[in-house]
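Re: the request from the purification team.
They wanted to know what the chain is likely to look like in 3D before they choose a buffer screen. I agreed to run a prediction and write the result into the notebook, where they can find it.
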Amino acid sequence: MTTPVLKMIDALKAKIDAHRPLDPHMLNQVREYFRIGMAYSSNALEGNSLTETETKIVIEEGMTIGGKPIRDHLEALGHSEAYDLLFKMAKNREITEADIKELHKLFYYRIDSKQAGKYRKRRVIITGTNFIPPMPEMIPALMGAFIAGLPEIRLKSHPVEFAAIIHKELVTIHPFIDGNGRAARLLMNLGLLQAG
């Protein structure tokens, strides 16, 4: 079912598509613009204290920001690396369990190399909500069922709906010890990139 909002999204995408192929220099500028914006906004949702300008300085200049936690710098750098991987993965039409683990690993390895890209083995509590994530022993089966169902969900859904569904499903399963929201937002964008 196509709603008025989805029709509007399709019309806006058609306007963008009319300008394709983009000049390689312009395409690179657009990608770099979104690299900073996505790293900043996704990390800020999780409490990262870097401003958008500071995120740009950390990623592009490799400089640290005085008075800001090291973890915030590492999150910006990790998100930037995972962003690059999105474009490589977008060439494939499918999303695999290995893809999701690799996105998490790139984002998270500087923070906790032992947990990066690996499913959690402990229970977790999400502060600010009554939601209780699945028990750790359930995660492999839940992820397997999630991945197995993706082709049908993609077939039956508008690309924006597909992106929203895969985001919701991943954060509901909550497979990682930390970084689930960021992994889900990266995954959501992978679904959108795969759809053009």
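For the purification team: The two ends are 20 Å apart (CA to CA).
Please add any questions underneath this entry.
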